[in-house]
Amino acid sequence: MRHYPAGVTIVTVNSATGPVGFTATSFASLSLEPPLISFNIAHTSSSIEAMLAADSLVVHFLGEHQQHLAQRFSRTADERFTDRSLWTTLDTGEPVLHGTPIWVRATVRQLIPIGDHTLVVGLVTRVHDNTDDHPIAAPLLYYNGTYHRPTGLH
Fold first, then answer.
1. Measuring CA to CA, which residue among 80, 71, 70 is closest to residue 47?
2. Is 16 helix (H, G, I), strand (E, B) or coil?
């Protein structure tokens, strides 16, 4: 699957022990009406318990300028939220990463264990989009083990 390009997202949740987050390249839009999204989380992930217990989450669609965050959130869990200048908290409790062009808040609608992952289905309740007609950055892509930016075809 490393030869299939994917957009890079970071999923964040609030937990009893504080903020939890992880990099996810399995994000998908499932339905417009109602607005449903999905992503997978491995059963071996350090974030699995927090994700399974969460009522809501935020999915951040990363721009190319946020490669450092994608790398940070794919490493050791206890280092992900140590830099307080990188994030803030919504009034609903979920952590939100600064400078993210688009993020969506969703309530957890369904958790489906399948194989060695759990498919998370969320109902979108809030959308933050500051891209207008001119995005602040190109989307961050992951392909064949490295990060990329898309280039348009003419």
1. 80
2. coil
Supply the pTM of this predicted model.
0.94
10-65, pLDDT tens digit by residue?
A: 999 999 999 999 999 999 999 999 999 999 999 999 999 999 999 999 999 999 99
Task: Give the per-residue pLDDT at 135.
Answer: 62
DSSP characters for 21-83? EEEES--EEEETTTTEEEEEEETT-TTHHHHHH-SEEEEEE-BGGGHHHHHHTTS-GGGTT--
CA angle 58, 138, 19 (to 5 degrees): 20
Q: What single DSSP character describes residue 139?
A: B
Amino acid letter, residue 65: H
Would you say how long the chain is, in residues?
154
User: Of 71, 25, 17, 93, nearest to 49 (Cα)?
Assistant: 17
Strand-strand pairing, 36-42 and 6-7 = unpaired
What does the mean pLDDT of the chain come to? Answer: 93
Q: Which two tokens stand for residue 59?
A: 């999915």
Lowest mean pLDDT among 35-44, 67-76, 128-137: 128-137
